[in-house]
């Protein structure tokens, strides 16, 4: 990660809206917020600057993100706890930090700009690099292992479910054929195989055909959906009364999981037909967003990487007795 990224050019996605939504929850005397996807620390820096009493717990599974943000947030070092971990371990991170409740949580899912821009990390089909795609460079599983060891059935499922690739069986089939000749170890060779597997008529439309396969492999390598499935409920459970969560997701599966987790907690689950509502069945949260909010046209013009962003937020309105 370069020293100059994060402060210029890389504007955090929907920053003003994130600050606005979290502000009411962070106005107490000693508020605590969790940034579950610290990245370059852009959202975190703005939150710390806006709330002088705020303590921020920042989590990222990428050691370079922690290193970079430690430097960037050094003016606030007495108010930050930065942890190299998966957000899937959020409950443990909070326990270790001695926090039972939090006032805010922010999820800005997906990859960071440096992960995409640094060729050697192997996330991008536009550079030739080893097939890596690990956010946590200390983990074992790489994209190379997925591509060279998973069965045709497993590859098809990943490409279809995580990449929404219509031609998943064809791409998986050609991967299996090609890897039998020689292991597939580079982003370029994989991108070439995908291009060859996609019918020529379809290739002419819809951007680089490798995009969907690369997204699917990245989600698999980093177990992104299972981390979110664990992290979001853990954050919601930890929120104090009036506490708020904001989630920025970048593809439909993340957004669907987010929507499900939030709506499950904002529904009254009383059996129908009861004369009085049962307190135990009253919702513990209320939605702060109607549907998913999108970035403005103006933001999209400034930052094309915000294009697929979807924002949802909720507030805790009841605690268990
Ligand atoms: C879009 S970036 C966050 C950018 C950040 N909000 C900012 O303003 O600079 C997403 C970050 O989440 C991290 N990440 C993705 N999945 C994670 C997980 N399960 N646990 C912890 N960090 C994760 C990535 O390593 C990446 O640094």
Helix content: 40-55%
Hetero compounds: S-adenosylmethionine
CATH names the topology of the largest domain as Rossmann fold
Mean pLDDT: 92
CATH homologous superfamily heading of the largest domain: Vaccinia Virus protein VP39
Q: Could you characterize what this model shows?
A:
Its main location: cytoplasm. InterPro entries: RsmH, SAM-dep_MeTrfase_MraW_recog, SAM-dependent_MTases_sf. This protein has 321 residues and is of the alpha/beta class. The chain has two domains: 187 residues, Rossmann fold; 105 residues, Putative methyltransferase TM0872, insert domain (DNA polymerase, domain 1), CATH 1.10.150. Helix content is 42%, strand content 13%. The protein contains 14 helices and seven strands. A seven-stranded mixed beta sheet has the order 3-2-1-4-5-7-6, sandwiched between helices. Helix 7 crosses helix 8, helix 7 packs across helix 11 and helix 8 crosses helix 9. The N and C termini lie far apart (46 Å). The relative contact order is 0.14. The N terminus is likely disordered. S-adenosylmethionine binds next to helix 2, strand 2 and helix 12.
């Amino acid at each position: 990660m370069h020293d100059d990224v994060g402060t210029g050019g890389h504007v955090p996605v929907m920053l003003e809206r994130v600050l606005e939504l979290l502000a009411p929850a962070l106005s107490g005397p000693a508020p605590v917020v969790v940034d579950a996807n610290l990245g370059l620390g852009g959202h975190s820096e703005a939150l710390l600057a806006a709330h002088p009493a705020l303590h921020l717990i920042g989590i990222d599974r990428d050691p370079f993100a922690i290193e970079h943000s430690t430097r960037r947030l050094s003016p606030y070092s007495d108010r930050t706890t930065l942890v190299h971990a998966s957000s899937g371990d959020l409950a443990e991170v909070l326990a270790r930090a001695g926090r039972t409740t939090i006032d805010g949580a922010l999820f800005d899912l997906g990859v960071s700009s440096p992960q995409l821009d640094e060729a050697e990390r192997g996330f991008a089909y536009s550079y030739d690099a080893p097939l890596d795609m690990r956010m946590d460079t200390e983990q074992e599983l790489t994209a190379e292992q997925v591509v060279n060891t998973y069965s045709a059935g497993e590859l098809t499922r990943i490409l279809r479910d995580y990449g929404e690739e219509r031609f998943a069986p064809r791409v998986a089939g050609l991967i299996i054929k090609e890897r039998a000749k020689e292991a597939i170890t580079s982003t370029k060779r994989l991108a070439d195989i995908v291009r060859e597997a996609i019918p020529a008529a379809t290739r002419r439309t819809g951007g680089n055909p490798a995009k969907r396969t690369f997204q699917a492999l990245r989600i698999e390598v980093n177990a992104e959906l299972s981390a979110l499935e664990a992290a979001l409920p853990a954050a919601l459970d930890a929120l104090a009364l009036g506490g708020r969560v904001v989630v920025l997701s970048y593809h439909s599966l993340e957004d669907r999981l987010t929507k499900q987790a939030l709506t499950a907690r904002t529904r009254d689950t009383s059996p129908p037909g009861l004369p009085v509502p049962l307190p135990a069945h009253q919702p513990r949260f209320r939605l702060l967003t109607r549907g998913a909010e999108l970035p403005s046209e103006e933001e999209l013009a400034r930052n094309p990487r915000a294009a697929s962003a979807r924002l949802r937020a909720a507030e805790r309105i009841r605690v268990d007795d």
